[in-house]
Amino acid sequence: MTTTTPTAPRAGASAGGRPPAGRAGVLRRTMARREARIGLLFALPAFLLFLTFRFGPAIAGVGLSFFDYTIGAGAEWTGLDNFRRLVVDPVFWSALRVTIVLSILIVPVQLAISTLMALLVRRAFRGSRFFRSVFFLPVVTSLVLAATIFTWVFSTGGPWSTLMGLLGLPTGSWLGSTVLVLPALALVAIWSRFGYGMLILLARMQDLPRELEEAAAIDGANGWQRFRHIIVPQLRPTLFFLAVIETTASFQIFDLVYMMTGGGPARASYNLVYEIYNQGFKYFDLGYASALGVVLFVLTLVVALVQRSVIGKEK
Amino acid sequence: MTTQVTTPPPAATPPPTATPARGRRPRRSGMEPSLGGKIARYVVLALAAVVTIFPFYAMVVLSLKPAAAIEFPASLLPTNLGTGAYERVLSAGGIGTWFVNTLIYSAVSVVAVLGLSAMAGYAFAKKRFPGRETMFWSFLAMVMVPYHVTLIPTFILIAQAGGLDTYWGLILPTLANAQAVFLMRQFIMDLPDELFEAAKLDGASEWRIFCSIVLPLCKPILATLGTFVFLWHWNDFLWPLIIGQGTEHWTLTVGISSLQQQDVPLNMILAGATISFVPIFAAYLVAQRYFQEGVTMSGIKG
Q1: What is the pLDDT of residues B49-68, one digit of tens each?
Q2: Distance from CA of B273 to the nearest CA of A (A)
Q3: Do B284 and A37 touch (CB under 8 A)?
Q4: In a domain, A12, yes or no
Q5: What is the DSSP letter of A175?
Q6: Residue B215: other Cβ atoms inside 10 A
C-alpha cells in the first residue's frame, strides 16, 4: 500500500506505474483478455452445475406449478388449477397451520435457551469448554439419529412419559396425541439446534466491549438489569438474524416428521414439506407438489424480506 | 423465559448467600458471579448437559442390550451388555453397503465441492471477466431459495437422465453449492495480489498458480468448509431417500429409517444408529474447532 498520491492516474498499480502507451498498452490488453478467459474457465464448472441444479430447477419449480405433470405421462398446462385446488384443500390449510404452529413453538423457546446457555458459558471457567462442546454435539448429529432415539424417549412407558408420571401429569405417549405431538417434535428440534444459536451468540458476545457492563455493575445494576439493558440491545441484530434462520429451518422440518410420526396422528403433525414429499414422491403429482413448493417459497421470502428491512435499518 | 437468566431456581441459589455477595462483589471486579451464582450456573449447565447427552447415552446402552431387556427404566443401567445387536445388524447385510455409500457420497462431494468452489472463488475474487457480477449475484440470490422448491425439478431432471439409483445421480446435484463459492471468494479476496503477480512474472501457468499458491493459502478455509460439507452429506436424508429407490444406493440415514419402519427390534436400530454416529463423533472429538467454525460460518451466510 504505497500511497504515491500525485502520480497515480490509473488503478492498474500492479502492472507498474508506466503510462499505457504503445506496446505496453497492447500487452496489457492481451493480458486482460487472457485474464478474462482464465477467470471464465475457472468459474464455469461451478456455474454450470449451479445453473443446472439450482437456477434452472428454481425457475422450473415455479413453472411446473402451472402444469399437471406426471413422469411418463408428460405435462399439461392447467394455469392456476393447482393453486385453486390447493386453496380449497383442507389438507393444505392444516399443513400450513402445522408448519406455522411448529415454528411458533420452536423459535422463541430455542432462542431463549441459546441465549441462556451462551450467557452461562461466555466467560472461561473450569468446564466452560466442555459444556460448549456438549451443547454443540446435537448440531452435528443427524436428525434421523435424533428421531430414532427420541421416538423411544417419547414412547409409552419411555423416559418422557415416566417423567410426566412423576410430575403427576398424564403418561400417554405425546407422539400419539393430536395436541402434544407438535410440542414433542418441537422439543426434539430445539434439542438438536439450540447449540447452534448458542455458538453464534457467543461469538457476538465476545466482541462486545466489557466496559459498558462493568460501568453498569459499578453503578449498582444487578445481573438482570445488565442483561436486559446492556447485553440484549447489543445482541438484537444477532438475535434477529437467528430468529429468521431458525424460522426458515423450522418451516423445512422433514426428517423428524417422516421418522417419528409420519404426519400423524390424524394429520396433527403433517406439515407443508411432508405434504410436498407425499404429493411429489408418493403420488407423483409433481405439478401440485411444485405449487406447494411455491407457497413454501413465498412463506420463506416473507421472512427473508422482513429480515432485510430490519437489518437494513440497523446499518 | 428469559427471566431464568438471572433468577435461577430458588432451590439452587440459597438467598442468604446470594444477597450479601452481591453487595460485596462489585467493588472488586464488577461482574464476577457470587458463590451462589456460580453454584447456580453449574447446576443449570449440568442439568442442560445431562438432557443433551442423555439421548446419546441411551442410544449406546440400549444398543448393547439383548432385545428382551429393553424395558424402561431398568434398561438404562449399563449392565448385562453384549454386542449381539451389532452382530445381527451387521450380518443382516445392508449396513456395510450403506456405510460405504455414505462415505462415497460424503468424500466425493467434499473433494468436488472444495475444488470447484476454490476455482470459482479465485475467479470471482481475483479475475475480471465479462458477466462476473451477474454470475456472482445469481449465486447469491439462490441461497435464499429453499431446497424444497428446487427438489422436484431436480428429481425430474435426474430421473429423466437415468440417474435414479446411481452414484452420480446422488452426488452431482449436491455439488452446486452457492455458499461454498461465496465463502471461498470472501477468503481469497483478502489474500494479497502480490503473491499471484510474482508467480505470474516468473512465468507460472494459471493452473500452477492455483494449485501451488492459492490452494495452500486456502488451507484454513478449506478445512472448515470441508468439514461442513462432509457433515452435511453424512447427515443428509431427503435427497438420498428420493434418489435411492432400491436398497443398493441407500445411505446410512435412509437405511436406518427403513429399519425403523420395518419393526426391526429397537436394539438393532440403535446399533445401526450408533455405527452411523461413531465416525462423526470421532471426527468431532478430534476437529471440534472446524465443526463449530464450519457450521456457524455457513449458517451466517444463509
Answers
A1: 999 999 999 999 988 888 76
A2: 6
A3: no
A4: no
A5: G
A6: 16
Nearest CA-CA distance, residue B290 and chain A, Å? 11
Measured CA to CA, the distance from residue A279 to residue A68 in angstroms comes to 12
Residues A58 and A90 in one domain: no
> Nearest-CA neighbor of A247 among A289, A313, A310?
A310
Cα–Cα distance, B191 to B220 (Å, whole number): 13
Which pLDDT does position B30 carry in this prediction? 52
CB B245: neighbour CB atoms within 10 A? 12
* B97, B250 contact by CB (below 8 A): yes
Q: Is some CB atom of chain A closer than 8 A to the CB atom of B134? A: no
Q: Label residues A202-229 b or e (16+ Cβ within 10 Å = b).
A: bbbbeeeeeeebbebbeeebebeebbbe
| Spatial separation of the C-alpha atoms in residues A42 and A44, rounded to whole Å | 6
Domain shared by A111 and A237, yes or no: yes
Tracing cell 436406518 back to the chain, one arrives at B256
What does the radius of gyration of chain A's CA atoms come to, in whole angstroms?
27
Give the SS3 label for residue A247.
helix
A38, A133: one domain = no
Measured CA to CA in angstroms, residue B285 lies from A142, A291, B234, B279 at distances of 16, 43, 16, 10
Q: What is the pTM of this model?
A: 0.84
Whose CA is closest to B225, among B301, B146, B131, B123? Answer: B301
Do A55 and A107 fall within a single domain? Answer: no
Closest CB to B299 among A109, A148, A245:
A245
Q: Which domain holds residue A45?
A: 24-64
Residue of B nearest to A295 (CA): B149
Handedness of CA B66, B71, B72, B77 (dihedral sign): negative
CB B238 within 8 A of CB A255: yes
**Contact between B249 and B165 (Cβ < 8 Å):** yes
Helices A181-207 and A143-153 pack at an angle, to 10 degrees, of 130
**Comparison of pLDDT for A310 and A141, the residue scoring more:** A141
Q: What is the C-alpha to C-alpha distance for residues A50 and B220, in angstroms, rounded to an integer?
A: 25
Closest CA to B228 of B163, B176, B296, B131: B296
Nearest chain B residue (CA) to A139? B295
ipTM over 0.90: no
Asked whether residue A2 is assigned to any structural domain, the reply reads no
**Three-state SS string across A267-295, please?**
CCCCCHHHHHHHHHHCCCCHHHHHHHHHH
Cβ(B236)–Cβ(B253) under 8 Å? Answer: yes
- In chain A, residues with a C-beta closer than 8 Å to the C-beta of B178 are 50, 54
Number of residues that make up chain A:
315
In degrees and rounded to multiples of 5, residue A169 shows phi and psi of: -100, 165
Q: Is A230 on the interface with B (CB under 8 A)?
A: no
Please state the domain count of chain A: 2
Chain B residues in contact with A131 by the CB 8 A cut-off are 45, 48-49
Angle between helices A143-153 and B266-286 (to 10 degrees): 130
Pair B260, A259: CB distance under 8 Å: yes
Task: State how far the Cα of A25 lies from the Cα of A16, in Å rounded to an integer.
Answer: 12
Q: What is the pLDDT of residues B235-244, one digit of tens each?
A: 999 999 999 8
